[in-house]
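Justification of resources, computational component.

The compute hours requested in this renewal are based largely on the per-chain cost of generating structure records like the one below. Each record pairs the submitted sequence with a full structure-token output. That output is archived, and it is also reused by downstream analysis tasks.
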Amino acid sequence: MFRDLIAEMDTAVFDSLGDQALIDGQPAQGMFAAPWLQPMIGKLNTGLREPHFVVRDERARGVIKNSRVSVAGQGEYSVVNLEPDGSGLTVLVLRGIYD
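The structure output for this chain reads:
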């Protein structure tokens, strides 16, 4: 029951605040962040310095290192690491592709 409630909440948050992307050409909804684009809020330090795209675990299935991620309005990236957080979300750590 708790997992169902969290899944509903995740869906609402991703639908309202999420970013559209393509992962290996397939649509994906997630949360994009790049440290150099974030406003400074106090002295919060997340430890993540690379750009990253957070997706639900189900969407992360099949994503591998070097998968290509295109985030609408934010550029092209390659996946350098996948970090499941244990809460149903996976962080795709990215590196910019500069053709």
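The longest helix spans residues 2-17. Helices lie at 2-17, 57-60.
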